[in-house]
Amino acid sequence: MRYILVLTGLLIALVSQLRADDRPLQAVPYVDLNRYIGTWYEIATIPQRFQKDCVAVTATYTLRDDGAIAVLNKCRKKTLDGELKEAKGKAWVVDKKTNAKLKVQFFWPFKGDYWIIELDADYQYAVVGHPGLKYLWILCRTPQIEESLYQDLLQRIASKGYDLSLIKRTLQPSE
Fold it and tell me: What confidence score (pLDDT) does residue 11 get?
């Protein structure tokens, strides 16, 4: 009987941790990689250890001859004129039907999910997430984004199950 109570308690705790909206995270229906490549500015993120003290964050994607995507992430340490940090990696499409689900790797053997969950029709902004809601990046082709668009994106992100209190704006230079 004691084991049943313990298991019941664990089950209740697990269920209470589930998102209120338990639908799986959805990627966008299709991404034209030729339009997606180029430089993106990080507008906001769920901060990760590997981005500690980063401001003026950019991600530049280029197509490689082998079909993969070269990734170059740059940031300044602490201030807009701080030390430049760079990380090079690669990405590859794991869902060839949509091109919206990728894997990214900066050093072997570790790789992560990179799902494009929002994308402007003109490829001027994007939101990249993780199926487990661990990561999130709001990206824009310019260092600044209109506040009304940013607030709209936050509402869409919240509707996907993300905790908005975890999202932090990224300091970027003025245009």
Answer: 30
